[in-house]
Amino acid sequence: MNTDVKIAVIGLGYVGLPLARLFSTKYKTIGFDMNQARVEALMAGHDATLEVSDELLQSAIANGFTCTANIEDIRDCNFYVVAVPTPVDENHNPDLTPLYSASTTVGKVISKGDIVVYESTVYPGVTEDECIPVVEKVSGLKFNVDFFAGYSPERINPGDKLHTVDKIKKVTSGSTLEIGVKVNEVYASVITAGTHLAPTIKVAEAAKVIENSQRDINIAFVNELSKIFNKMDIDTQAVLEAAGTKWNFLSFRPGLVGGHCIGVDPYYLAQCAQRHGYNPEIILAGRRMNDGMGEYVATEVIKLMLKKGIVVLNSEILILGFTFKENCPDCRNTKIVDIVKVLREYNLNITIYDPWANPAVAMHEYGIQITNELPKDKFDAVILGVAHNEFKILDVSVFGKEKSVIYDVKWLLLSEVVDGRL
């Protein structure tokens, strides 16, 4: 156990908790979160996000890892890591409020010689131009004289038990060359996949924000292809499989792009570009395409129902899945909400079944009722929206009435049982 570095991880969500747990294997580590209920649950040995298993969490706690909502408990630390959300508002403008709040927290406890490292996804310049001035103002210390900073963008993939935090190569950076080396050494000591030390904080920030923007644009392209091929009555999946036989063809599939990264980060890059006098056409076009896919799915289902002569008004609809991706409870920015919004305009009765999602979270965040219990009713239309493992072994056809529509967003079902696919 390295006693020289004492780490405080601020924000114990999908990113902060796995990182804090990992750091605790080598350093004295304290996890800080303002949500007292979250802290109590973690100290009881359970992570509701399921990113850290109960066994790993309880083992870490037994070996000295602690979580707290009391700011005084992190005052003696000297290496602060900020891992708070960076969402967008209803107009898709970056909301830096959580970062300002976390920076204020750091400013209250940071001491001379300490380092603060930001992990939250931002556009280039946020760390040094937005966050550090807050730390300076609150602490009364001078940046790069009394305290230092770094940026190491998170690369957590929620629900992925193969590519865990220690197995994903980490980009690091520092506010000076010496601090960059120091930050890199701390991360390299626990990241088995290795690290990449970027020359500046802005380079590291830019690298992160383009990672997800690139994926967003590629998914937007295949989503557009899906729309084109559906009109031509061509199997999109078959086309992609055929094209994929070329060695340098990029493998992407059409789908709903939600979550806290791919569906959000491009807006950070776009606003940064606009601030510098450039209008990013491709980035925003990709966002428009992907943000419209929920409405597209709902409209396609309605069309298929009408073609089959199913009365749409007051019909019964079953949606399988609510989370933004498969096999995890993460409902942040789920695009199933967009499907529901359009279907409600037709006065339909909607049932949403998801064995992973928390009904209380769905109601609190979206005002939408979901169930963890497998429905026993028959429906006029069934939409498979999320590829949970439970759905792979489910006979979806049993939910349909004698005349019904089955729509497969995730290409999970056999072609002979579906009426439409994304």
Order of helices and strands, N to C? EHEHHEEHEHEEHEHHHHHEHEHEHEE
Gyration radius from CA atoms, angstroms: 23 Å
> What summary fits the major beta sheet?
6 strands, parallel
Q: Within the largest sheet, what's the order of strands?
A: 3-2-1-4-5-6
Which structural class is indicated by helix and strand composition?
A: alpha/beta
Strand content: 5-15%
Q: Helix amount, in percent? A: 25-40%
Sum up the overall morphology in one term: globular
- What is the overall pLDDT average? 95
Number of strands: 13
Enumerate the spans where pLDDT stays under 50 for 5 or more consecutive residues. Answer: none
* Tally of alpha and pi helices: 14
Please give the alpha-carbon distance between the first and last residues: 51 Å
Structure commentary:
By secondary structure, this protein is of the alpha/beta class. Helix content is 38%, strand content 15%. It is built from 14 helices and 13 strands. It has helices at residues 16-23, 36-43, 54-62, 97-109, 126-139, 177-188, 201-231, 236-243, 265-275, 281-291, 293-307, 336-344, 359-366, 389-392; strands at 2-10, 27-32, 66-68, 79-82, 115-118, 148-151, 170-172, 195-197, 316-320, 349-353, 379-384, 400-408, 420-421. The protein has a six-stranded parallel beta sheet, sandwiched between helices. The chain has a five-stranded parallel beta sheet with strand order 10-9-11-12-13, covered by helices on one side. Strand 5, helix 5 and strand 6 form a beta-alpha-beta unit. Helix 4 (97-109) crosses helix 5 (126-139), helix 7 (201-231) crosses helix 9 and helix 11 crosses helix 12 (336-344). The radius of gyration is 23 Å and the shape is globular. The N and C termini lie far apart (51 Å).
